[in-house]
Amino acid sequence: xxxxxSFLLCPPRFYGVEYVINPWMEGNVGRADLGRAVxxxxxxxxxxxxxxxxxxxxxxxxxxxxxxxxNAGLVWGDAFVPARFRFAERQGEEEHFTxxxxxxxxxIVEAPEGTSFEGEGDALFQPGExxxxxxxxxxxxxxxxxxxxxxxxxxxxxxxxxxxxxxxxDTCFCPLPGxxxxxxxxxxxxxxxDEIRRRVPADRRIEIQTGDxxxxxxxxxxxxxxxxxxxxxxxxxxxxxxxxLETVICPLDQFMLAGGAAKCLVLQTERAVPxxxxxxxPSNIRDRVVELTGHxxxxxxxxxxxxxxxxxxxxxxxxxxxxxxxxxxDSVARLRVVAPSAERLGAILEQLVDMGVRVMDDxxxxxxxxxxxxxxxxxxxxDFYATTIFPTDVRVAGTWxxxxxxxxxxxxxxxxxxxxxxxxxxxxxxxxxxxxxxCGIEGVRTHPVRSSSAxxxxxxxMTAGVSSERRVELVVERIAWExxxxxxxxxxxxxxxxxxxxxxxGAPYLARxxxxxxxxxxxxxxxxxxxxxxxxxFGTSLGVDLERGAGVRGGxxxxxxxxxxxxxxxxxxxxxxAGVIRSGIFYECVQNDVPFALxxxxxxxxxxxxxxxxxxxxxxxxxxxxxxxxxILMLSSMLHSIGVGNMTPAGVRLICVDISPAVVxxxxxxxxxxxxxxxxxxxxFLTLLDRSLAEGVRAADADGDAAC
Length: 708
Ligand code: NAD
What we know:
The chain has 708 residues and is of the alpha/beta class. It has 22 helices and 36 strands. A seven-stranded parallel beta sheet has the order 33-32-28-27-34-35-36, sandwiched between helices. The protein has a four-stranded antiparallel beta sheet with strand order 17-18-16-19. Strand 6 and strand 7 (131-136) form a beta hairpin. The longest helix has 26 residues, at 682-707. The protein is elongated and about 105 Å long. Residues 452-456 and 458-467 have low confidence and may be disordered. The structure holds nicotinamide-adenine-dinucleotide. Nicotinamide-adenine-dinucleotide is lined by residues 498-500, 504, 525-528, 530, 559, 601, 603-605, 636-640, 658-660, 663, 681-682.
């Protein structure tokens, strides 16, 4: 007599690969050999009949995937949860499976409307336990599971599938009697792998290699001491036998063409509810409603938000969408974000808030921010909200307040009471004990200014090939035009530069910009000033003669002599006034009252007297000089440019020039419309900028003459 339980099978009479709904089907449409498929299925049926009770369901014509009966639904005691297929191609199967369940006397428990649920393909019980492993991410919806878990009174453990080739849980995960599992770790995200390892003891856990996984070794029927699969390597066979399982191979290559094997071809129809496990098990799955407004479709925000949820292991349901009907009208979307646990939901919402999404409570209303006092000077409460460069509002007593001094990587401090509430960005080190700090993401909203144009621009340069110099010229011409306008209206341009500016011969051009009033502040490190002074004194930069482009004997000491001379005069300004320094960027700064700040680094020689080796002082000076900037030119210094980028709020025009595409991408991709990245030699950039500005001035003079 069979002892291995009861299974439903559906003969492949109408089987074929007729469409593509998973990566296995690609290229296989019309390629299945029906005769061979029937023979392989018969072999599997016979193997099962010798161990278990087999019931046959009549196939329906026009439903070529119906033999994959594992996806029919899920049986638990007298309950049956019928599938809600994700793809229309398979939805016609649902009525046949439900009719079978009714005829079998099973109680129908519907998965929630609007969700996908693909039965035992994604939902697998641990044998003998009220524990449901719940696959999601490709086919079944995460938000289908809390209701199913509650209705069946079982614990649900969500597992996030991240490789489309393993689109159902049963393609990469197989629970074993005695609390074991066979699974392919790479098919799951890191958190799901951790969850499996946490729940299944090492000696019961069989992690398989890619070869076995791609042969669908996990897609196995485990019954009566047998492990029936399409493929099992020698190594896996040995490990299974240590768990008292005998491997039985049933070749099923005709079904592999459609992405299915042994387990896909059966549905377990009898499953006893374990005794003494009837207590309620609340699901860890959590959800939250969020709203987003803006150019959701043309600006791409909707896609980015959905991708972010998906990549972070969450899932979503779009509850409402109102499209802006005109170019200048915003769209509004309301989403339910679902995550496998409260912690992961929190992490997802944090990312969404930074994208401008608003988090609502269960009644779809926004809440006040949660404020906690700093436990000590310079220390924030554990779950403080970390700021972005984007304008940020905080909700206090029902009113939104815009934070001042917006910058990245700060905390939000709320001062004052109802009438005089003020919110300010503060650095961790500046916090005082008892300061009220915004924690979590409730009552926080940001206003990112997003456009793909900045990114497109920098990528265009990277791929521009031989024409790039001309393209650089065109962009530089536009920047020159903007600088001209900023100068006319008395605005501020701040330059951040590295020593490469000097090495590439850019110093005279930058010096001229300072002299002609195009630059209102210079920020850099010791190296920028040292080599600028070196050129002024010796005509070399790091010992290289900039006129001839060749090294000068003993020139490697020039920069040290430059430092020594400045130190002897007490400051760069002192050396300028003494007539020792007579040209260069810093000479022009001193002569034209253009302030500068030099921040120290571990590789500095000297340093020069102005170089701030206390980085807190340096950061404060940088912040002071960048305040109110209209444009920041970041010229070939990754270190100093990133530092400045972090303290600059959105809305300031950023121009990033570097020879390395990766550095330009990092600096220019602030998700804002105001940044332009230029991949080029900084010396060339400054030459072109100087020329464009000079031409602009000549053109203006010519206009003036004509007017006279
Ligand atoms: P960095 O690595 O942060 O930046 C240099 C950048 O220049 C890189 O991103 C690189 O891709 C880019 N670059 C290289 N060649 C280029 C070219 N031809 N055109 C355009 N971009 C080009 O380093 P950094 O800012 O040069 O220096 C880091 C720190 O070291 C600074 O604080 C600096 O002052 C200090 N430093 C001190 C001395 C000194 O005291 N003698 C000398 C050099 C640097």
